[in-house]
Amino acid sequence: MKYNKMAQRIVIYVVGVLLLALGVVLNTKCLLGVSTTNSVPFVISKISSLTLGSACTVVYLADVLFQCIVYRKVKIKVLLQFPFSFVFGWIVDFYNKFIIISNPDIAMRSVLLILAIIFISVGISMVVNMDFVPNPPDGGVQALSALTKLPFGRAKLFYDGIMLAVTVIISLTASGKIIGIGVGTIVAFFAIGNIIHFINKQFGTWFRSVYDKESQAVKG
């Protein structure tokens, strides 16, 4: 029974990672503005020769290094985010290679934005609830919360503000204009957290039934 639980956790986690990566890619295709978390990788990919996936890897590695500095000790879940960053970047580039959308009209842009927000929200919820290797940006928020003593929610707002500021600075420095920030950024900012809260409320019992004490014992 406990091994079946572990298998379910692994499947849910992997599906969550795949949905999250798909959401990241669709978010960049809608041309309405990317989410705050994706804004820095997006602008880096636009002003450099790096692919979107490679830019995600670079930013995610920075998140991991930040966690190492804050915690000042070796944590296995932090160290595992190094390979996670490379794998996630590869998945993003895989999706980006095959999902080609040229000159979408406003209706298609809206649909892409909605799908991106849903996939990102569902993906984050699945990854976080299965408690394996955290998505590096989420790990970065946790470290920021520990550093500033702020609650996770407020630390997330602080983190998002930093990402937006970095995006604006890089954009203006490299091109003289702001890249990747738009109405979609604002919609994603308010929608993703609320959707995650809804998912956790509706499916929290099921998540807990999969990730229970027995599965924790197997993990340990």
Layout of helices and strands, plus pairs?
Layout: H1 2-29, H2 36-47, H3 52-71, H4 76-79, H5 81-98, H6 106-130, H7 136-148, H8 152-175, H9 183-210, H10 213-219
Helix pairs in contact: 1-5, 1-6, 1-10, 2-3, 2-8, 3-5, 3-7, 6-9, 7-8
In short:
It is built from 10 helices and no strands. It has helices spanning 2-29, 36-47, 52-71, 76-79, 81-98, 106-130, 136-148, 152-175, 183-210, 213-219. α1 (2-29) packs across α10 (213-219), α2 (36-47) packs parallel to α8 (152-175) and α7 crosses α8 (152-175).
Q: Overview of this structure, please?
A:
The longest helix has 28 residues, at about 1-30. Helices cover about 80% and strands about 0% of the residues. It is built from 10 helices and no strands. It has about 220 residues and is mainly alpha-helical.
Helix content, binned percent: over 70%
Shape: globular
Number of helices: 10
Reported for the largest beta sheet, the result is: none
Strand content: under 5%
In whole angstroms, the N-to-C terminal distance is 16 Å
Low-confidence stretches: 213-220
Oligomer: single chain
Mean pLDDT: 90
* SSE order, one letter for each helix or strand: HHHHHHHHHH
